Amino acid sequence: MLGTFVLQAVGLFIATNIDDIIVLSLFFARGAGQRGTTARIAAGQYLGFGGILFAAVLVALGARSFLPEAAIPYFGLIPLALGLLAAWRAWRADENDDEGKVAGKPVSVLTVAAVTFANGGDNIGVYVPVFATVGTVGIVAYSIVFLTLVAVLIAVARFVATRKPIAEVLERWEHVLFPVVLIGLGIFILVEGGAFGL
Question: For the chain, which residues make up each domain, given as ranges?
């Protein structure tokens, strides 16, 4: 039974988190050359995913008032706001710097956590019915597998972001891709969830 939980957890994690590779790769590109980038991204990813897991477990165990389902689409406002801020900063940097972009900007743990949590809002909706049916042992097994796979996800994103051809593209276009991806992600979450009657 435990083996079944593990296999199901691996499949569920891959299906619900594969898109994080792109976002995390952009974070790695943004922080290229900065000391502690990997540690900050890992801490932020674990903090954000831990929030997703905590919310899903609470709701599955009956704390429905903790996170009403209608609130989840509004998580899209987080990456949307962060993307607009990043776009504004990139525009200001272009305006104030005739020499072009400086590679490597500090990556904030809280920014990574906020984007991870917002991007995983739909994960909560997927995890809750699973957690509600597998019992305590299943929830623990799923949680351990998920938290282990977060490290794998971070390693894959770092690998992707540091491949020479990809790294060159990311380094050159990160200042455009980062805000565009965050803004697009925010709009997608808002529209997909029907926020504001969209």
Answer: 2-190
